[in-house]
Amino acid sequence: MAFIVLLKILLLLFLFLPKIASLIEFHSIGEEQTSFIIDICKLHGLKSVILLYAESTEEMEMATMIFKYRRTLSREGVASTNLYFSQLHESSYYLKHIVRPYYIVVISNYNAMNQFSLATSTFDMSSAVWLVIFIYKESNSDYCHNPPGNIFHLKFNSEMMIRCGTENILQEWYSVDTHQIEINDVATWSSKKGINKMVPDFIYERRYNLQGLIMRATIVKGSLFTIKNKDGELDGIFGRIIRELCVALNFSFNVVSEVEEYGRWDPERKIWSGGIAELYTGRADISISDFIITNDRLKVVNFTLPFLNSKNVLVIRVPENLRIQLSSYFLTFTLSVWIAVFGVLIASSIFLIFLKIKSTTKCKIAYLLIDNFLEIWGIFCQQGIADFSYKSSLRIAYFSIYLLVIVFWAAYSAALISCLMSVINVLPFNSLESFVADGTYQLAATRGSAYYDKFANSKDPLAEKVMKLMLNVEKLPITDHEGFEMVQ
Fold first, then answer.
1. What's 318's DSSP letter?
2. How far is C-alpha 355 from the geometric centre of its chain's CA atoms?
3. Is the pTM of this model over 0.90?
């Protein structure tokens, strides 16, 4: 009887020994990885993390280890939650207010790696920061050091740190051509010294070699910053910049298409047009043209840092009231100045009558007034006097009038030159509100540009009123040059 009991005990030990060994292995690995995760959180100053793992037969062991991770993180003041790989897309809904969430991925076997690969196939891997921990290495596959292709669907700007088992070397994974993973050593870790960085913090200081990648490029024909020279090569500001980047980053490009428009979203047809469509559909990798950053475009393509900052302006034909007319010669002085000038002309004519009437009585007062007026008008017109009087009083009066006329003409000449040379912005409107209120002008924006989208896709009441003054899409200019020709 005792023999049978002993045999049953040995049989139970034989059946459960692998699971017991597995639990011991997971426990030892979990304790060591916990210290590593805490050091990572301290390094990045993390306040929250998401733990991801696979649904597998090792559910109990994995759940126990994840629970220990979360408990330790909670003690360190780091909030955490745990999800399956299949729930990765659901996490985006809860983390929409976090700019770049931090995911800690635990991969225990090859099946778990395949589950994570499937989850990341439709996920933007550049939208988060990743720490992937391989806690189990199968004897027949070294998938941590030699991953099969770009299995996690990484991009050039993806940030993923890898730790293989209990190794002290930490690696960085990213991809240049989306078919192969680039692996670099970035840091070391030990339980005593913590994490020691081996590379700069800024990823583009260490990712400056594109391994001779050939990019498919598209350009917008009407772009003023990207033109072709006589040899058919790209020139202009952007053409020269891209050539310098090719040398610095070790890549080249081929222009695969030239489009008419920059590109806009058509809400009726549910498609993009122009250069944005080339990038969105994958027909091109880069568009070498001047694009304006908008919210809709940011959802489908990435932009470089801005090269130029510009203002939005309305260009109109020069109004008739800005052209030089005959009345412009009288605008040099105000009405009160002109009244004063003619007042001096009449007053001096009357004053000369009193000076002349004492010396002669041959002429009537009316004739003297007319003669004096014509003489003084001649002085104003810079003409001489036929009969200059010998009396000192008349000479002083004429000389004073000459000086007054010299000062008058000097002031008039200066004011006239200033009036003709300066730009007087007397426009019919100075804002969109006054432009809409005027209602006599039509508006044209470059077809397929962000300027058109600002009004076409806006729900603002003012934008809807502006669209009523917009030309039909078929009549819109394709380039800025065509737009200026329409305004002339």
1. P
2. 80
3. no
Per-residue exposure over 202-241, b if at least 16 CB sit within 10 Å of its own CB, e if not? ebeeebeebeeeebbbbbbebbebbeeeeeeebbbebbeb
How distant, in Å, are the alpha carbons of 138, 154, 284, 431, 466 from that of 437?
A: 75, 53, 44, 10, 10
Q: Which of the given ranges, 85-89, 128-132, 175-179, 437-441, has the highest pLDDT on average?
A: 128-132
Contact of 159 with 99, CB cutoff 8 Å: no
Residues 6+ apart with CB under 8 A from 368: 352, 353, 356, 357
267-305: per-residue pLDDT in tens? 888 899 999 999 999 899 999 988 888 888 988 898 888
Angle (CA) 129 135 192, round 5°: 80
The CA distance from 358 to 271, in Å, is: 98
Contacts 24+ apart (CB under 8 A), 172-175: 172/199, 173/132, 173/147, 174/207, 175/150
Q: Residue 86 has which token pair? A: 């299949």
Task: Give the long-range contacts of residues 110-117, CB within 8 A, separation 24 or more.
Answer: 110/138, 110/141, 110/143, 111/54, 111/56, 112/53, 112/54, 112/56, 112/85, 113/143, 113/151, 115/54, 115/55, 115/85, 115/86, 116/52, 116/54, 116/85, 116/152, 117/151, 117/152, 117/153
Tens of pLDDT along 164-206? 888 899 999 999 877 889 999 999 998 888 899 988 888 888 8
Ordered DSSP codes for 344-371: HHHHHHHHHHHHHHTT--SS-HHHHHHH
Instruction: Give me the count of residues in the chain.
Output: 488
Task: Report the mean per-residue pLDDT for the chain.
Answer: 80
